[in-house]
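Complex 426.
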Amino acid sequence: MAAARRVLRWALAATAALAAALALDNGLARTPPMGWLHWERFLCGTDCAADPRRCVSERLFVEMADVMVAEGWRDAGYEFVCIDDCWMAPTRDERGRLQADPKRFPSGIRRLADYVHSRGLKLGIYSDVGNKTCAGFPGSYNHYDLDAQTFASWGVDLLKFDGCNSGTLELLAEGYRRMSLALNKTGRSIVYSCEWPFYLRPLQQPNYTEIKQYCNHWRNFFDVYDSWSSIKSILDWTALHQDSIVKIAGPGGWNDPDMLVIGNFGLSWDQAVTQMAMWAIMAAPLFMSNDLRRISPEAKWLLQNKETIAINQDPLGKQGYQITKDKNFELWERPLAGQAYAVAVLNQQEIGGPQNFTFPLTFLGNGLACNPACSVRQILPASRDWGVYSWVSSLSVEAFTTRSASTGTLNLQPNVTNTHHSITKR
Ligand SMILES: *[C@@H]1O[C@H](CO)[C@@H](O)[C@H](O)[C@H]1NC(C)=O
Ligand SMILES: *[C@@H]1O[C@H](CO)[C@@H](O)[C@H](O)[C@H]1NC(C)=O
Ligand SMILES: *[C@@H]1O[C@H](CO)[C@@H](O)[C@H](O)[C@H]1NC(C)=O
Ligand SMILES: *[C@@H]1O[C@H](CO)[C@@H](O)[C@H](O)[C@H]1NC(C)=O
Ligand SMILES: *[C@@H]1O[C@H](CO)[C@@H](O)[C@H](O)[C@H]1NC(C)=O
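Predicted structure with 2-acetamido-2-deoxy-beta-D-glucopyranose bound:
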């Protein structure tokens, strides 16, 4: 048994080393980045006279930074405050540089970055690979170096680079590569968030080996919306494509299933639990898009759930995957550091009440996750110790339905005393 465990550990270590060698070499995003991004909740509000609290303006980002510090978001790990589309003036300045809309960002981005940094947070900004952004503001085409230098001179820490109006597939790929090199040339550490494979996919299979050499995370699929059908479509897409996308994820480069919409209007409680659990299993970047100034205590509890965040941020950096699907139930697992596993049971049935899904522990980790024994801890929807199980036993997990779907998340640790020898002998 100990021999089998050692082999498993070496295999994992080898995979991790390989992934690290291939990732964008900027030392960033060793675990999935966490923060807040304005798009899903605030879209392209530009009329600050009519809607001062919700327009895309420096006030919005200052208030969000303040609440992130005051309400424990920063301490929970959410460190980036990110601007999406619509921050710009309609034209570049007289020297060809991008500039913020002077009415909505009267102090300028440099001052906003200083403020965000003074709160112990980091600032993210947005641009586009083509001539125009998705909302029609100036894009970075033909200005990659200048825009990277501008962002670096402002003290920006993350760039979300969209792919609207990108012209040909060749220009799309070249633009993503050139902006990555331009960011590197500035000498400033800037996380590079791409949508390259999403814009490529309808026409061409993405080369993820290449994309990971240039990007810290990348979107594969449509924008998330504040609805269960959107979350469900992202999960279904991910399961369908897991053979090509799961293996490439690792420290420095992650698949990005888009923002967390927990705390808004569209998800039931069980659906919100499901998004949080599954984003942890998928090693997803955690960018909330909600109004942290007005959020329910329940949503806050879920988004700040330490054990779930610890799974998302697990240092082994392996993305989880679906291991089996049985009618409406899906069983997912994610290998964690220390030979542990995170497990999620997803109930996609949208009729009736809660149901239990029972499965043998040998389903997990190719039979090795709980071999010869493991301690099981439930994380969501509430945390509870389940005690020690031997590898021949089964688990029965209750997953809620009620016109929704939901997830029970478990954390399986090796029965530590029993396997002490093989864990510590490195
Ligand atoms: C730029 O890339 C080189 C190697 O490709 C790397 O060593 C360096 O840390 C990078 N610099 C930044 C600022 O990302
Ligand atoms: C941007 O516009 C210029 C001038 O019209 C054009 O030559 C170029 O191909 C455009 N770029 C993209 C990516 O569409
Ligand atoms: C994918 O990109 C990598 C790195 O640039 C390259 O070595 C490899 O040949 C490419 N694969 C395909 C199928 O084009
Ligand atoms: C259903 O699962 C829960 C744990 O989630 C467990 O406590 C309960 O005993 C199970 N019920 C049945 C009937 O197996
Ligand atoms: C877990 O480890 C303890 C201590 O070695 C042992 O007494 C117990 O039997 C183990 N449990 C199982 C189910 O193997």
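The longest strand covers residues 406-414.
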